[in-house]
Amino acid sequence: MTQWWYNHRTGQVEEGPQSLGSDRDGPFATREEAERAPQIARERARRWAEEDAADR
User: Fold this and answer.
1) What is the pTM of this model?
2) Peptide bond preceding 27: is omega within 30 degrees of 0, i.e. cis?
3) Residue 53 is inside which H or E element, if any?
4) Inter-residue contact 17 to 1 (CB < 8 Å)
5) pLDDT in tens, 2-48
6) CA 3, CA 38: separation in Å to the nearest integer?
7) How far apart are CA 26 and CA 14, in angstroms?
8) What is the tens place of the pLDDT at every residue in 10-22?
9) Could you count the other beta carbons within 10 Å of the beta carbon of residue 5?
């Protein structure tokens, strides 16, 4: 099964892990999901911030 990665340094999607782990997010199941990596990260960060605020 192919895994896809988003390289946040270059803004490119990679098929398989091609770059340093510190430069990429993933794995993702599809290329389209990897292309959405920045949006997914923002959504997760927003949810975590909301959960942290609710715990206070």
Assistant:
1) 0.81
2) yes
3) helix 37-55
4) no
5) 999 999 999 999 999 999 999 999 999 999 999 999 999 999 999 99
6) 17
7) 10
8) 999 999 999 999 9
9) 22
Sign of CA dihedral 35, 41, 44, 50: negative
Of 9, 55, 56, 8, the residue nearest 34 (C-alpha): 8
CA atoms of 36 and 28, how far apart (whole Å)? 10
Band (1; pLDDT cuts 50, 70, 90): confident
Contact between residue 51 and residue 28 where contact means Cβ atoms under 8 Å apart? no
Residue holding tokens 């923002």?
Answer: 42
The token pair that represents 27 in the structure block = 């794995």
Burial class (CB in 10 A: 0-12, 13-18, 19+), 37: buried
